[in-house]
Amino acid sequence: MSSVLTIILLSTIVLLLLYYRCMKNERLLLKIPGPRSFPLIGNSFHFWMPPNKLFLFLRTLHKLYGGLIRMHAVNFWSVGLYNPEDIEKVLSSVRYNDKQGVYKFLQPWLGEGLLTSNGSKWHQRRKLLTPAFHFNVLKKYFQTITEQTEMFLKKVEMEVGNTQTDIHPLISSTTLQITCETTMGTSMSEEIKSVMSKYMNAIEIVGESVIKRICRAWLLYEPFFNLSKIGREQKAALSDLHTFTNKIINERKQFLMNIKSYRQENDEIISNKKGRLAMLDLLIENEKLGHITVEGIREEVDTFMFAGHDTTAAALTFLLMVIANDIEVQAATRYQLTLTTTYSSMTCIAALIYTLNQNASSLRGSFLRIVLRDTATPIYPLAQVLGIALVKNLRCWK
Ligand code: HEM
What we know:
Elements: H1 2-30, H2 51-65, E1 68-73, E2 76-81, H3 84-91, H4 102-110, H5 119-129, H6 142-159, H7 167-182, H8 190-215, H9 222-227, H10 229-258, H11 262-265, H12 267-270, H13 279-288, H14 294-325, H15 327-340, H16 348-358, H17 367-375
Antiparallel strand pairs: 1-2
This protein binds protoporphyrin IX containing FE.
């Protein structure tokens, strides 16, 4: 009897302490400026709008509330940082690199790959994959980038005469094919291409489901989300996403198995001059050494495929928009390209990438550099929000 009483007493103290802690955090958070929030539902209703309006709404908040903005929905709290000094403080310290919140919504798809993992898992994977990020790796991908750009331009030519064309899907499928052929060493056979369109549709669905979860407070909770229409759609989409990446991994494994001692025989295909392996080969190599599991490989392939093709597609779409919007920019860009590249037959985008790669320092201050740099500023946000879960206190400037 006395032990039951002790358990009840201890549980009550723990609950009270937890309650006190929550209240304390809540009290402190409510001191931060932000749009009016209501008990429990917080700012949920602020998020109840189409994504394009939400995007504009979030970008206007700092004009009303300054550099530090608090928002919450039920027990999900967020503080938006807008001051460069505060952002620098977070990004430059290893103390603040925990991924929670929205990143958890990506886990059914990306598992615990580099983008969504934390702590020792992130460190181990990052160390393992660092050679795949080396700048020199890009050079051997140039041929593929040029070929795919030629194909992209043919698709664009077919659109000539149409009153309107959404260029983004065309660019997306190009950057996805480039990512597959380069970092994954995929052959882009008809079989792979046939599942690729399903993969692209599935990405749209998962992207939409993540946005919907942010905008509708009840979908933040797993059981409600799983029962919802978008939750069921996401489940089906995940199967298409993983089918595609599994095909890519299996195809590459088969290829590597089919060539004996592939390092000696096919050095050009799988590694660059310094012996750096392409990303997927690096992972397969590490699986043999017991440093990563089959599941782990899929997590990283899913992560790289998404992180690699989506960002570059957004960057190129913005770049084309900047060039297309201004006839003077077009003329100056064309002129600059004739000066900086010797590849006369090269297509515009490939030439831009090549020029950036080869002449990064000589381009400093040039018009082309300015166009490229301006396209990568917050005016054209490629990654709109970076989320960090604070596990330690952070002192902000204002
Ligand atoms: C214009 C092009 C790109 C932009 C603007 C961009 C931007 C970013 C940003 C902002 C992050 C941090 C995301 C976060 O923590 O929430 C990130 C992470 C990452 N990106 Fe990119 N990226 C680009 C291209 C690529 C490419 C081409 C690849 C691979 C082929 C790639 C692979 C990754 C990976 C694996 C991570 C996670 C890294 C980690 O947490 O250690 N990215 N990228």
